[in-house]
Amino acid sequence: MSKRRNRTSKLTETNLVLNRRDFLLTGATAVGGMMLPQIARATGSEPGPQKAIVFVFLRGGMDGLSLLPPHKSGSSTQTANYLVYANGRPGIRVTNSHALPGNSQFDINATCERLLALWGQQDLMFIPGAGSPNSTRSHFVQQDLIDSGNPLGGAASGGFLNRALGQIPDNLQSSRVPSAALSNGLPLSLRGSESAVAIPDLNVSLTTQGITSVLSMESRLQKMWEAVIQAEPKWVDYLLRKNGNRARKSLSVIREAAQLPASQFSPLGGKLSDNFHHYAGMSSFYNGAKLLKADPAIRFLTIDINGWDHHINLGANDGSFFNLMGRLDRALGAFAHDLQQAGLWNNVRVVVMSEFGRRVTANGASGLDHGRGGVMMVLGGGLQGKRVLQRNWNLTDLEQGDVKVTVDYRDVLAELFVKYQNIPVEKLNQIFPGYIPNFLGII
């Protein structure tokens, strides 16, 4: 079974050893397990009504057919789709599922009770047949191509979310943390010249105890800053005038998030362990909810969930997929619930995707090998969801045994950028080189 290589930088003591020129030119500081960001540029325009976009990457290749199995009966086409699915997976097909109200083509895995509730609230839509135009089945290559925003290869600087941040037509001054990764280091998608902060995905990363190690290093940073002031006062003046003090602002947000009472983020009480039970142990979502409350003007958050490479023992109505999908279902449901309670859910859009789907037919180990088309999800308050958006999805017309990619994943993200982040359509080519917009009608 392939394992994802670690492609995010791990911060150590050596990261703090910066020379004065590096410190001044980058405007970045490493603090414990957190990367304080580069300073965002100012354009002088007023911020628009953007929504925060939370990018959830299911790394490993999530099987879309185990999440949304074809409905068993209906039209002749529907019956034919179901038979291809059922005959290809005699031991691992999903038999315990719920019908999606208002949709006759798909069911939803029975472990997804919270997603089903969000569907009923019109806060969720599914996009089957979504994927990359690049046909590689390598985890590492496909993930990097998606993170870079350049799936067909070629020159691209940094990650697509970082470039998107640079195209948002406001000065980002309303946000103290324009973008953040809930992980040990910045994923490729957030690397680049714009502001990004990485916060470790640890069970105590946003608790008072967990942040102590971060704050205890402020004295060391202060000494570094004092040395810079003494050595190159003109550079310091330039930094303060042009860029402000983004690192200080970022740290203030994390302080505020750490101090928010846990009782605001769980119906189960104020104990931290209860909150992790509420989020099924997926602490990134819990930390993300607290960050959004501390700074509602955040533009991008990223969350990585590993473990979707189910080559063996996928399971049918139990097993590895069922259990992991159940945890994700609970985490997404808790995230939506707690943002609703905070009055923020209507200002958030969550995009869930994987690098590719999996084969239609099971392998000899009761699992599924790497495939092509998968399923994307978009969630958010006031989304007018309760829809399955697809283009000619059909299991009787496969691509060498795989679900065809009929929706370019960039079509989903680009539409959200334009309609929720106010990025001009003509600027999309700066985010996705060579991309020609083909929106689905999400909004």
Gap from first CA to last CA: 39 Å
SSE order in H/E notation?
HEEEHHEEHEHHEEHHHHHHEHEEEEHH
Residue share in β-strands: 5-15%
Low-confidence stretches: 1-48, 201-218, 238-244, 268-273
* Mean pLDDT level: 80
Domain count: 1
Topology-level CATH name: Alkaline Phosphatase, subunit A
Individual helix count: 15
The largest β sheet comes out as:
9 strands, mixed
**From the coordinates shown, what is the CATH architecture?**
3-Layer(aba) Sandwich
Dominant shape: globular
User: How many strands?
Assistant: 13
Can you give the helix content as a percent range? 25-40%
Indicate the CATH class: Alpha Beta
Query: How large is the radius of gyration?
Result: 22 Å
> In terms of structural class, how would the helical and strand content be classed?
alpha/beta
Record keyword descriptors for this entry.
443 residues, alpha/beta, two-stranded antiparallel ribbon, 15 helices, 13 strands, globular
Concise synopsis of the structure shown:
By secondary structure, this protein is α/β, with parallel strands linked by helices. The protein is 35% helix and 13% strand. Mean pLDDT is 80; it is low at 1-48, 201-218, 238-244 and 268-273.
